[in-house]
């Protein structure tokens, strides 16, 4: 009897722990996060071009590629897993067997050592779906990289999308009608044509996400259709769907350590690494609009003195500088772009140098071509103000993405049924 009681207590304890873990998993909002400071240059993209969005069509034979570097000489046992999420990036109730086919835990077995670099690193890469695992449902997904079969030893998480196209999205970006945004804003007008596809309750069953240049901090959600007509949902608001136009992204190239490219002030080798100083940037708050061709905040790894950018490109210390008369007291200034994971944290929080009267920050970056902006974030908030330093113009070229989600009545997961990518200069 005593042993039965002990066994019963053990089982109940395990059930409680499992339930608690499941509840925590469901409440977690998954983000693009790096948990190990030695993990660098994480890229997730549709196979074919590293600048592609991490989005594929369901059952179309397309693949997504994840690559990353670890500053180390030692190969690690890394594994990957997938989490199916709702439109808010919380895990769904579905067991893995309902959205995955094949092996649920797979090893990252493609890796290469860096070659002839001062910073030694190992480059890891996987492409999926593959022969080991396939994904069966549309929607939001997170890929999780963890170490040594221990799912609690998470190295990084990255968001991606699988769409099962069922509707048509007609969209365009225009100059806003409202006077306060007329010269500085951009408004996304769109409508959904769903034909024979059944949507019973558009107000509650359809969820919308609009992103500008891969940013999450200023994404627009929770939109309801303005008008509902026969097989069409109209979201052409005049007072919503408005974004700061911003300015074209600043840029620099560090593909070569022998030649100083535009905006590079100096390149210096201080044993054992290279250090790059960019020219001092200037405020563009009140500057007129100026066009330059950018890649809307992304970056492309490349090396001039090498053959394979994945392994021949070195890591260098790059210092940014923005003169400013006095430091902000009500917020912080950040370097924003894919180079800083589109986030606002310690690693890209610029520090004020009172002697130089300038904001400064040094980042460790892999050789390549980079875009960036300066973003101001008020204390206690997580949405950036680009206009304060960069200015804002309705003419600026920006990428916009529209995601359309549908949760059918009685369904346990949210489908991604439509996607549209458009640019303001097209």
What does this structure look like?
The structure is a single chain. The protein is mainly β and 426 residues long. The protein has 3 domains: 133 residues, Macroglobulin (MG2) domain (Immunoglobulin-like); 104 residues, Immunoglobulin-like; 141 residues, no CATH class. Strands 1, 3, 5, 7, 11 and 12 form a 6-stranded mixed sheet that branches. Strands 13, 14, 17, 18 and 19 form a 5-stranded antiparallel sheet that branches. A 5-stranded mixed sheet has the order 21-22-24-27-26, with no helix packed on it. A hairpin with a 2-residue loop joins strand 17 and strand 18. The longest helix is centred in the first third of the chain and has 26 residues. The protein is globular, with a radius of gyration of 24 Å. The termini are far apart. The N terminus is likely disordered.
Q: Name the structural class.
A: mainly beta
How does the overall form come out from the CA principal axes? Answer: globular
What is the strand tally? 30
Task: Count the DSSP helices.
Answer: 5
Overview features:
426 residues, globular, 3 domains, 42% strand, Immunoglobulin-like
Architecture blueprint of SSEs:
Blueprint (H helix, E strand, L loop, with lengths): L1 H26 L5 E2 L4 E8 L8 E3 L6 E7 L7 E8 L10 H4 E3 L3 E2 L3 E3 L8 E7 L4 E3 L3 E9 L2 E14 L4 E7 L10 E9 L8 H4 E7 L7 E2 L5 E3 L2 E3 L7 E3 L5 E4 L10 E7 L2 E6 L20 E3 L7 H4 L2 E9 L7 E6 L14 E3 L4 E9 L1 E11 L8 H4 L8 E8 L8 E9 L3
Parallel strand pairs: 3-12, 22-24
Antiparallel strand pairs: 1-12, 2-4, 4-9, 5-7, 5-11, 6-10, 8-9, 11-12, 13-14, 14-18, 14-19, 15-16, 15-29, 17-18, 20-28, 21-22, 23-28, 24-27, 25-28, 26-27, 29-30
